[in-house]
Amino acid sequence: MIAQDKIEPTEITNASLIVTLNMAPLTFTYLIRSMSCLLNPSLSWSPLMTLSNREVCAAVKLRYLKSSDNSVEVNIHKLLAAFFRNQADPQKDFTWQSKNVRGFVELPYHLAAAGCLKELEDVLCNHQFIQAKCQLGMAAKLLEDFSPQVPSGVSRLQEKHFAAFQSTQRVQEYRSFVSRNFEILSSYPALEWQQAINEPCSSIPYKDAASNLGLRGNLSSYMEWSSKPEDVSECYLTLSNFKMPAVSVCVSPCSTMFATGSQDMIVRLYNMATGKEETSFIGHSDVVTDVCFVGSSLLCSASADCTLSLWDLENKHRISTLKGHNRRVNSCASDTQGKLVASGSWDCTVIVWKATESANKLCTLEVGSPVNCVDFHPSLEQVVVGSWDSLIRIYNYFHKTRIAVLRGHSTSVRDLSYSFDGHHLASASMDGDIKMWAADKGSQVGNIRGHSGPINKLTFSPNGKELITAGEDRQIKVWSGDLGIPLHCLHKEKLGAATSVSISPSGLTVAIGFHLGSVVLHDINTGAKIFSVKLGSFALRAIFSFDGNYILVGSDDSTTQVLHSLQGSKVCSLTGQTGPVLCVASSKSYVAVGGEDFTCCLYDNVNKLKSYKQSKPSVYLRGHVGPVTSCCFNEDETMLATASRDASVRLYAVRSVFIAGGGEPVRIIHDCHEDWINSCQWSNTGPYLVTASNDFNLKVFDTKTATEKLTLTGHNSAVNSVAYKYGCIVSGSSDGSLRVWSHKGTPITTLYGHTLRVNACDIFVKCKTKIRDDNITEQNWAEMAEKGDDDEKRPSRQKEVNVEDVIVVSVGDDGDAWIWKPLQANTLATLMGHSDRLLSVAVDKNNSMVSCSLDCSTKVWHPRLSMVPQGDGSKSAIKIESNKHDGPVTFLAMSSDLVAVSGSRDGTIKIWTQEENDSFKLMPRHTFQAHEKSVNCGCFNAFAVKIFATGGDDNKIHIWEICDRKAGFFIRKESSIDTVMPVACVLIPSPNLVCFATWCGNIFIVNSGKMAQKIFNIPTSAPGVSCGTFGAVDAKNWVCSMEFNGPDKSKIVFGTTNGIAGSLHFHATTDAQLTFDRAEVHIGAHHPVNKETVDGSEVPEQKKTPKWISALAHYRDVTLAGDSEGQLVAFQLCNGEALILTKKKVHKSAVTALVVVYDTVITGSSDGTIKIWSVAGTQLEQIGQFFCPSPVTSLEVKLVLQGSRNQPETILLVGDLLGNVHQLKWHA
Predict the structure, then answer these.
(1) How far is residue 862's CA from residue 848's CA, in Å, rounded to a whole number?
(2) Which residues is 595 bridged to in the sheet?
(3) Which SS3 state, helix, strand or coil, does residue 753 take?
(4) Where is the APAF-1 helical domain (predicted)?
(5) Which stretches of 10-53 are assigned E, i.e. beta strand?
(6) H or E segment and range at residue 119
(7) Which of 45, 53, 291, 779 has the most CB atoms around it within 10 Å of its CB?
């Protein structure tokens, strides 16, 4: 058989040996004895003989296997492959039911050595082979099988065959499947088929698993991931063989290598394509804190040992040690030419070094605060420094002078980076804020939010179009270079073109006027319509009054109506115009109305006029020779500006003309533009006026001197509207675009949403403080520079306006109203895969990324950037709805009609409804900002399925109603409850009652109706709200979980942070009071960190850790509690007494979610697993398990009847730490 030219292992496997050809036993025994000196000794009998060493193997091969074409050796490998195939698969039906370890180990090797690559592919790409080999503990060996070694002495053609084998799609996908699920397959090989069925539907492993349900084997029940991602993981390489984590990473300029600096004091160099370690550099005596390439030939590393090292990449040795700092060196950076290195240290200095063997200092810069980060300007002799004091300083290192100081962050600046062209600077702080700056002018042009924790690293891509950030929330985010996120698009086509828009002074509502005579008021946060009023059939221009209590509506019928801003009811009307009203303005004391009759009418404030049905103007302002298209008051209402189609602006002293009953303007600015002026707006921070014109331009004027300050160009059509607040200018054009500018003329972003011309726009800026300084003519978002160190010479600290958020609303001829966050960047990609905090990230010129984490792994990514076409023909990543939150999911709730609500630590709420084509799959329908801070809890009202409540860190509980009507889908806030502490849990035990717990340790019962009913008095009740409290558990040990104790909504069970579980049963009495029954059980108040004691002594109090009751559920007459140590405890509470029935360790870490469905218990944990348990008496038996991408934070389960037989289907919603909401289906 060996001498045959062509034999295949499959043929040999299926062939039966002829007995007459077998060797006689006596001859075989003699042969064995004569070869014993050449064989490996064995203590037990084995059917296999192995040669003792390599020299003997080489001699045997040379003597017996030598041939011109290696055919003899190849045939022997084929024979051995067939032999081991029979050992591993004795049934010869690809079921691989053998437990023969040697067979599974040797079979892939001999198939590869024989060149039987097709047979090798069939073996490796087989789910049952993978499962069988993993069950024998050989998952690591399985990964090696997918990368077989090319046998020595083969031809180039055979080498190409091996290369083709490795690039086969089937082999690559199976290798990726095994690699990504390696830990699961190693520990739980029985879940191999479940993992395969949860692969993307287009993948080969999924298709193979789905086409043969018999591959399930003994897996009688499994979990289906309904919302699984249909794209393969963007991580294509993972390096995890480290004992200590890498804390910094950088990519070479040529993008062929990357380097890491680690806590083990070693600098390692890797091949970017293969992940192969090229070399390692040892020389530091403490943690390597940062690394950077210096040109293409040097590598610089910074360390906590107070030094930096320069390493020669070609000769692989250190050429210089840079000494000059006396504390930890935290950052290093190289200039673009590779000639200089800058280092920042906790000794409050930055040193610029020459990158040579002598490593001379070029300069030392005294910063005055510990330095976290440094970076070079790509083209100028400048270095930027971020420090602990929240300031960003820019220095000229050649002249050794400070150029500028950028203010805006409120916490320590963690990292910063210049864009590739040097036009922008990005900075990240410890509170998670990312700010974008115009590098040449020092103006803040963007404030990016998306991470739920501190940012440890940020960098621009080499093309400058993307910003990459890595945070402690375990996410890498890729942001677009274009700012602007749409919050809502309100479609009102049936009302005609939208002609005007105005945001209320509180920033909570927006009023829209339409061409067909309607005014509509919307909630900005949720997009919900509050009211709609039909005033006629004329075009309307609507604005809010100065105090926000009224809406002033100018009409083409020459009147101005005044409406209540809460109900839309008519208050009074203003007359005096003889033609259509084109503009309306309001201040604290006056109202101005301009129109096509070339006049501007001046009235008293609305509070004085509302007692009259009709009011005539107090003053007529004439002088324009064209229609008055815009009018506005300055911030202190001393001046009024009117703009006209005659291209002029007239400035009036309001008090003077009001007293005199008329008068001439203080100043007239003639020929402001070359065409009509359509809009003007006064700055609220200085004597500046911006105008918009049909000549495609905007201009900013200094009203004190009536001179032009600057011209803003960029629109491709007439500019119809402008708004101006806190140094931010927004303009809308007939080309359908909306542009945002800084007051210095810097273009910030362009927003595309409208399909027709933009008629009006407005802006709202949310600020923490607003402090005036008469010496400053214009307040900016961040002061650019300071020239001295003394506080007395720092006026910027007292005049700075800290902008928290900016909202822009625009309306157009398409009838749409777009609500935007113009300074927030679009997320192009979110990379998740690390299981602990991210420490650093770097990007190459091909947009491949390298990241390192505290989980001791380094990953290489090929991100897929989500791009959608925009109105200008470009592409961006604008998506109003997303399938994930930007922060950890804090709660999930599902109504009986399969509407779900999820909340996040970023304060947002998502509403999920059933997908049209799949009744068991939920899709995000609506997203809105529900709380200013984290949303901690939420629940549906069981008595009204469209009502739900949420509680948050902002000390508020909101009651919401889901409105799904013909007019649209929106969320309406019904009522709010103020609390004195952040809310931890909330339940609705009856239609008008809300039960909640706060951090103060109390449980409250509050009437949620519009009229608060006095139920039970406590001293801490909020004004105007009556509420009751069920004892104070402890101010330090608060209630962290609370559930209904069975179907009776008057029974509540709660768990605390000190291991106490209790029950509350309240009864209504005839006098509308509540009485309470209470029972408690100590599941374990504290557990020592180190459970061993010395000489029987008691563990000190400071070494004891609290044991939280983190999840609760009810099963028949038993209460189940999950704690922070992963235990599940079953107990009964009755008549004030408690009985613990059983305790079981069910997870490696905290049980964060617990649900009971009939006789099945489902638990979720911060160890990232969902486990299914069958209950038999007091015993739990695990029957299923699912691995989530990150720690589980919340869980909701519903039973849905399916099919004609109404078979129950278990649907699970799972929230995790990365903000994902996973949808699972349990097949029992």
Answers:
(1) 5
(2) 581
(3) coil
(4) 76-209
(5) none
(6) helix 117-124
(7) 291
Residue 1094: pLDDT above 50?
Answer: no
Alpha helices in 181-310 (DSSP H): 182-187, 192-197, 204-211
Q: How far is CA 104 from CA 183, 205, 836, in A?
A: 20, 20, 35
Rounded CA gap, 585 and 543, in Å?
7
- Select from 1181, 1111, 1108 the least CA-distant residue to 1151: 1111
Quote the radius of gyration of the chain (alpha carbons, Å): 36
Element (H, E) at 131: helix 127-135
According to DSSP, residue 306 is labeled: S
Ramachandran region, residue 548 (left: φ > 0; alpha: ψ -120 to 50; beta: rest): left
| β-bridge pairing 371-376 and 361-366 | unpaired
- Say what the alpha-carbon torsion angle 840, 846, 847, 850 is, to the nearest 10 degrees: -30
Q: Which two tokens stand for residue 343?
A: 């280092």
Closest C-alpha to 427, from 467, 478, 383: 467
Helices (H), 45-89: 54-64, 71-88
Phi, psi of 657 (to 5 degrees): -70, -25
DSSP 456-508: EEEEE-TTSSEEEEEETTSEEEEEEEEEEEEEEEEE-GGG--EEEEEE-TTSS
Helix axis angle, 101-113 to 127-135, nearest 10°? 130
Instruction: Give the amino acid at 560.
Output: T
The residues, any chain, with a CB within 8 Å of residue 156's CB and separated by 6 or more, are: none
What does DSSP say about strands 1086-1088 and 1074-1082: parallel, antiparallel, or unpaired?
unpaired
Q: Is 179 exposed, middle or buried (0-12, 13-18, 19+ CB in 10 A)?
A: middle
Identify the three-state secondary structure at position 308.
strand
Distance CA 388, CA 1088 (A): 36
Is the Cβ–Cβ distance between 470 and 246 less than 8 Å? no
With residue 828 as reference, give the H or E element that holds it: strand 816-832
N-term to C-term CA, the chain = 51
The count of C-alpha atoms lying within 13 angstroms of the C-alpha of 781, restricted to the half-sphere facing its C-beta, is 28
Q: Which residue has the higher pLDDT, 720 or 1087?
A: 720
Parallel, antiparallel, or unpaired: how do β-strands 1221-1227 and 222-225 relate? Answer: antiparallel
Q: Are strands 570-574 and 614-615 parallel, antiparallel or unpaired?
A: parallel
Is 538 in contact with 557 (CB distance < 8 Å)?
Answer: yes
DSSP H helices in 769-846: 796-799
Give me the helix-helix angle, 204-211 and 169-180, nearest 10°: 90
109-144 pLDDT, tens digit per residue, is 888 888 888 899 999 999 999 999 999 988 888 888
Count CB neighbours of 193 within 10 A.
Answer: 25
The most confident of 217-221, 288-292, 1095-1099, by mean pLDDT: 288-292
Provide the strand spans (E) within 979-1103. Answer: 983-990, 993-998, 1002-1007, 1027-1032, 1039-1044, 1051-1056, 1060-1068, 1074-1082, 1086-1088
**Separation of alpha carbons 45 and 369, rounded Å:** 74
Give the largest Cα separation in the chain, rounded: 134
Residues 164-219 have pLDDT tens digits of: 888 889 998 898 888 878 888 888 998 999 999 999 988 999 999 888 766 666 66
CA 657 to chain centre: 55
Q: Which of 566, 562, 610 is nearest to 584 (CA)?
A: 562
Q: Let me know: does 899 contact 945? Beta carbons within 8 Å.
A: yes
> Taking CA 639 as the corner, what is the angle to CA 637 and CA 643, rounded to the nearest 5 degrees?
120
* Structure confidence at residue 802 (pLDDT): 61
Question: Helical H runs in 668-790?
Answer: none
User: How many whole angstroms from its chain centre is CA 1196?
Assistant: 22
